[in-house]
Model the fold of this input.
Amino acid sequence: YSFELNPPRPPSTEMEAAERAAGAWEAVGLTARRAELDQQSLDIVDFQEVSANGRETLKGVIKDFRGVPAAERPGKVGGVIKAFQGEVDALTRRAAFAENAFFAVYKALEDV
Done:
């Protein structure tokens, strides 16, 4: 995707600005995309909650690991690594979702 924007020339009146905004709204199809954007915003909130819970779970795993006697830690490292990998995977899914949502809107705006 290109991030180069061509700024429009300034409108000569407020009415032209309103007409231009309405035209852009229609060209992008924001009314038709409203349900999709609403769902994406709900999904983002869900991802944020899952992420917060995941961080708390990871904190618990680390705390438990620190409480294990040093002699037993080598046998527990696998569980800690698995917890970290699970959190990395969850954050990767969250980032990919947000990026895809952004680029979908950006592509629609780019075509205007």
The helical segments are 14-28, 30-67, 73-110. The mean pLDDT is 87. DSSP finds three helices and no strands in the chain.
